């Protein structure tokens, strides 16, 4: 039987085994036209990242979606390392939820990984009628073979943090994962850890509040979240809500340590530039403590008198040694040594654009960290507009890939030039011994030069899985 076959399924036996996996040769990125001046469908781009390839740093395939204004966002897999012992499973379908239209596209990446094709579309009504949910965000494959997708809202645009289940073979909508009445007030990301019978989910905000841009008054009006939620993995009940307070407003990406026996992880909180460590207490419940704070900068020439760093994407290396995150407003990516889990130590930093460049409209009046404003970043003659946002680490931890789009409505609001000129993908070389980040000047994927016009490229995925999509049991 398949369940008795050890290691015949997808992925890797352990996170450390994954570090010895093959070097990435291609990556997939959703490319978004919503909120640009181009009325074209979003598409999935396949990019060659093999330095020995004649098509290095080129988009080698584009798979357009059949609809307009989907806002493709974060992708996931039909099967991953959670199904490592199941020989009947293959990682051959990429799940592409649409944040705005609520469609879910199933993409065949198994037949020809270099030329994905559309396999199936799950229409919004399936999510609306069967689950009472909308605005799907994060996808994770489960050990059961099912696919679980978190949501941010209900069909009316109010906040609702629920979870939809798809059949891993037919991709039919099964229904809700959470018990009736257990949905959280807001939703966004999630990560599960079966050995501790737990799942943690996070909160962004109400889709109708953030759908067309960011308004500070919406935070005060309660349209954005500041809690993380603890779920019983077996009963699907929400058993604890941890309020992170104002310091933890808008908790976005959540990452457990990769070691499946670990009972702790980190969550990046956008609005105040903080990272919280969450952990299981001796009593058996869960708690959280702030372990990183990026100071706001006092500025003029900007929408507010203080500019937060706006931590957006975070990830942890597969050996659980380093934490990385992007500051989407300040413009830097940071690397922290987290071997002392409660006291992360900054060991690497690189600026790649952002809102405080020294030739821009913003003047920094007070800065607790820098003595001068960073210069704009040029790569291969192109000025980097926008700021580092989505990040993905190579399996061996030596290369960090970066894209610059957050979400089209916020891109348009905070970085209008980014929407006009298109985003880029860059690559940072990582010192995995002492720590340190260095931009690879020979690597640039310019999504401003796309055939249909400049586009906003978002999350980065490898065909064989990566440190933000695979969960070990």
From TrEMBL:
- Major location (coarse): nucleus
Q: What are the GO cellular component annotations?
A: cytosol; membrane; nucleus
Question: Which GO molecular function entries does the Swiss-Prot or TrEMBL record give?
Answer: methanethiol oxidase activity; selenium binding
Stated membrane topology is: Peripheral membrane protein
From the UniProt record, give the pathway where this protein acts: Organosulfur degradation
Catalytic reaction list: methanethiol + O2 + H2O = hydrogen sulfide + formaldehyde + H2O2 + H(+)
Location in the cell: Nucleus; Cytoplasm, Cytosol; Membrane
Q: What class of enzyme is it?
A: oxidoreductase
Its keywords, alphabetically, are:
Acetylation, Cytoplasm, Membrane, Nucleus, Oxidoreductase, Protein transport, Selenium, Transport
Entry EC no(s): 1.8.3.4
Gene Ontology biological process terms, A to Z: protein transport
Family statement drawn from the similarity comment of this UniProt entry: Belongs to the selenium-binding protein family.
State the protein's purpose. Answer: Catalyzes the oxidation of methanethiol, an organosulfur compound known to be produced in substantial amounts by gut bacteria. Selenium-binding protein which may be involved in the sensing of reactive xenobiotics in the cytoplasm. May be involved in intra-Golgi protein transport.
What's this protein's name? Methanethiol oxidase
